[in-house]
Amino acid sequence: GQVRYSVPEEGKVGTVLGRLWQDVGLEGGDVEARRLRVVWQGRRAGVEVSGASGALVVSSRVDREELCGKSAACSLRLELLLERPLRVFHVELEVTDINDNAPLFPVNEETFSIPELNTVPGSRFPLEGASDADIGANAELSYTLSPSEHFRLDHQRNDDQSDSIALVLTKALDRETVPVHRLVLTAIDGGRPSLTGTMELVITVLDANDNAPQFNQSVYRIKMTEGSDVGTPLITLSATDLDEGSNSDVMYLFSRRVATQVKEMFSIDENKGELRLQGKLDYEEMDNYEITIEARDKGTPPLSGHCKVLLEVLDVNDNAPEVLVTSLSVPVPEDAPVGTVVALLSVSDRDSGANGRVSCWVRPASPFAVESRLLGSYSLVLREALDRERVWEYEVEVFAEDGGQPSLRASRGVRVPVSDVNDNAPRFSQAVYTVLCRENQGAGAEVARVFARDPDEGSNGRVRYSLWEGATGERAPVGGWRPASSYVSVDAESGVVWAVQALDYEEVQVVQFEVRAVDAGEPALVGNATVQLFVVDENDNAPMLLPTTGGGGAGLVPPLSPVAGTSLETVSGQDSETLWAWASWGGPAGQVVAKIRAVDADSGYNAWLRYEVLEPRGKGPFRVGVYSGEVSTARALEEADGPWQRLVIVVRDHGEPSRSATATLSVSLVEGGEKALAAAGSSSVSGLLFPGEGGAAGGIVSSWTNVWLVVSICAVSSVFVVSLLLYGACRW
């Protein structure tokens, strides 16, 4: 808003002009809380603002003529700047004029030389009028002349509001009667009370040269643009003198009352009367000149004629706009709303008219714009939302261009940093991390590393990692579900995932859990990532033998602890399981004697088993399937092979290094009749021999029981075959 006050010129020191805080609607506490600042535009000129009461007080002498000269309007301007929120009040102090300056003549005494001859009544003698530093009615002058029978005063007001004063002869002069006339010219201004100024006129009556030079015009009006070249001719003046001879020779010169500043700006050829420019015209310093030219003849005594040259200076666009930053509120938070005022700008141009009319804009394209507040006052405001992570600082160039032809332009750079707010959650480089970890790594071993980036600044971008307690691992063989924190932990600063305990593939194959990244902003923001930890199997389990079935009949001991080894020598030197089986002489090659069964708790190649006959070396009567474990005859058995054969069979996995277990198979060779009896005896579990019992038979089973068992098996087999036939017929 804008507030106006009136300041009387020459007001008494201490005079209160107004209650500024009250007039703009401020409370006493707002002055300090909202950081009020008073910014004067130009000179303070004897007026101050009391910080405590907000009173506008006259502090020293206020002279309107010193501040504004002859300008009709005289104002002092200041701005009140308030923060939180930012507001601006414009205060204008109008300095009112009082009649404190008396009229003043250029000289205290004016001397005239008037010839007595041919000077007829009605002759005019121009006089230089007085000036009054006041304005308005206080500067409107009237003139009076002391009583005289020979002269009267002629006062006329010209079209340009200037005064023309002349002394008019009313009665012929007689030098012998009165050689010198002394008159007093008084100037009276229009103030209340009025003030006066005087000048003494000394008129000397001369003989002879009685015709003064006369210009064809009393006032010449010319126009010239500012900045014209030095030496440019302005006008050629001409005056005529009716006398003859030397009395009619005229020379031109500046009047004695012309100011030194004017004489430095212009020159006149005293013979030709040509007025030239010898300085640089500047519209902003002076927009018009009044030049009094005197035409003087060479008679004795010389006579003079006078005229005025009124020069109007035309403005050209020679001043670029000026841009000043009066207030700057930075940094700007990135969540600042659209319309936030960032800076206050003052834009001015010393030119006038269209040349002084200024438009403003911002370049390059940015989230900021310039808005006009009052004449010459602009605001740099936010027009789009900011994002510090995209642009953390703006170099805004505010351009101002006037309306001249050609136009002039100025600019002012404004640096606007953007402050950070916590508007970005941490983000992991991957949504899902898939990690392979070998089993049996010790506690504290690094198994994975996660990374989350937060583009915010400072504490808003500082990330800490944690294991989400809601995550779980795989089901353990004993104890049910176990939390992921029992297997792994996450370093809060680096994001390194390390093992809490050694992982066992046979216990858990996959541990899946979530890692949270939390920044230190207010409020804190969270990012999540899933980690799938696959445990890679190591060959840490040797093959284990299972109870074995015999093709021709077999018996075995309960499985012993398997013996692991990497060489035949190592295996052969260890105890192994002892299995019993039978085979008949004369049986064809390929007869299955027994089947060795074994398992490996590992997986993949580590659990892929192969079977080999370790003893006897070379070509024996028996062989074993490499991957099936079936022990069969390599050829027809003969009596020369003896009553029994002892085989050492090794079961070896494909791990690196490989692990193995061995079994000893004792095969009894019997006759065909004995084979039937052995077959019946092998159907009973009580007929197995155990090495722990010294190899003796554990008991004898009734043959009738074996017969009924065979009958039952045949009956069940017949029912099964009939069922298959019926099912096939139905399908067909």
Please, could you describe this protein's structure?
- With 732 residues, the protein is mainly beta.
- The chain folds into six domains: 2-96, Cadherins (Immunoglobulin-like), CATH 2.60.40; 109-206, Immunoglobulin-like (Sandwich), CATH 2.60.40.60; 214-314, Immunoglobulin-like, CATH 2.60.40.60; 322-400, Cadherins (Immunoglobulin-like), CATH 2.60.40.60; 427-473 and 482-536, Cadherins (Immunoglobulin-like, Sandwich); 541-551 and 577-671, Cadherins (Immunoglobulin-like), CATH 2.60.40.
- The chain has seven helices and 51 strands.
- Strands 33, 36, 37, 38, 41 and 42 form a six-stranded mixed β-sheet that branches. A five-stranded mixed β-sheet has the order 44-45-51-50-47.
- A hairpin with a 5-residue loop joins strand 39 (488-490) and strand 40 (496-499).
- The radius of gyration is 62 Å and the shape is rod-shaped.
- The two termini are 104 Å apart.
- 29% of the residues are buried.
- Mean pLDDT is 80; it is low at 475-479, 549-575 and 676-703.
